[in-house]
Amino acid sequence: MFQGLALGLTLIHPDGTGSHVILGPPGDQVHADWSPDGSQIAYVQVTDTASDIWITDPQGTNREPLLAEYPAELSGLFWDTPAWSPDGSQIATVGYQGNPNSELPTGTVLAIVEVDSGEIMIAGQFVQADGFLHSFPRWSPDGSAFVINMDHVVGEEFIGSTVAIIRQTDTGWSEPEAITDVGQWARPDWHPTDDLIVFCSYDIGTFDSTDEPSNLFIIRSDGAELTQITDFGPGEERASQPTWTFDGRIIFTYVTGADDEQRNIAFINVDGSGLEILSAAVGRGNRPHPRLQPVP
Predict the structure, then answer these.
(1) Least confident of 10-19, 21-30, 32-41, 276-285
(2) Which of 53, 55, 76, 292 could make an SS bond with 245 (beta carbons 3.0 to 4.6 A apart)?
(3) Domains and CATH numbers, the chain
(4) Would you call 85 helix, strand, or coil by DSSP?
(5) Is pLDDT of 168 > 70?
């Protein structure tokens, strides 16, 4: 599954066959995530005035909002990057005060939504004056923790991010604990069965075109064993938007071209071997944000 050249979500087989769009205008559908059993898709429904989390089946025929309405204190936020819990009962999402695609938000809320009941739990909250914002939450294999980007801001300037861990406690959720130094890090994701996190540098979501090295890294949740697994140099290919597959590989956006205009879907093994590039180019526009459907 990926965001294609056309607005909406596209499904394609890993061998490059069977490409077809399941959702499309009005609006755009982005940042989708498969449920753990592969039977549902959570995604961001974007319009000119709003951004909300919706759920559909793989055919795109049964679509509905995750929440029919929001509590007053959460109304009007720009909701993004939904992440299914490992048991499929909850979805974590970040609500931004302001559209993060066009401005630095003035605050963020990390929310956990019970899919069946719509009950909302707040797992964290920042305002810009704190010097931090949330982005890209992803669950640990047992559902007891999140890995996120903790974005660092000075005034109204974004200066970089740390990869951070939020853990469940007896009273709720902990404050984020950074496991990296501040850098141009993005898109962390937790391995489905192992204590191993993948993330990238110089993500295309922030740097549409750059000559800075853009690579994939892995790290343990305690900050140990930081390892670079791709070796693209300045002005070379780029590796961005990684997530783990159900079988322990990494699926990511492989960026090439003189102005970083070509975005392909690619797979790679955790040791950096076995780079496999899907044949169909996807194009520009902070896409494709690929996800591989889990196999029950």
Answers:
(1) 276-285
(2) 292
(3) 2-277 (2.120.10.30)
(4) coil
(5) yes
For 163, the enclosing helix (H) or strand (E) is strand 157-169
pLDDT at res. 18:
87
Distance CA 285, CA 241 (A): 13
In this prediction, residue 202 carries a pLDDT of 97
Contact 136, 151 (CB under 8 A): no
| Cis bond upstream, residue 213 (ω within 30) | no
| Rounded-to-integer distance, Cα 212 and Cα 146, Å | 28
* Both structure tokens of 24: 């499309």
**235-259, pLDDT tens digit by residue?**
999 999 999 999 999 999 999 988 8
Alpha carbon distances (Å) from 111 to 49, 92, 121, 148, 234: 21, 6, 6, 13, 37
The proportion of the chain whose per-residue pLDDT surpasses 90, expressed as a percent, equals 77
> pLDDT value at position 100?
87
Is the peptide bond preceding residue 141 cis, with omega within 30 degrees of 0? Answer: no
**Taking a C-beta distance cutoff of 8 angstroms, is the pair 250, 244 a contact?**
yes
CA distances from 32 to 41, 46, 175, 196, 237 (A): 6, 12, 26, 22, 25
Longest dimension (CA), the chain: 52
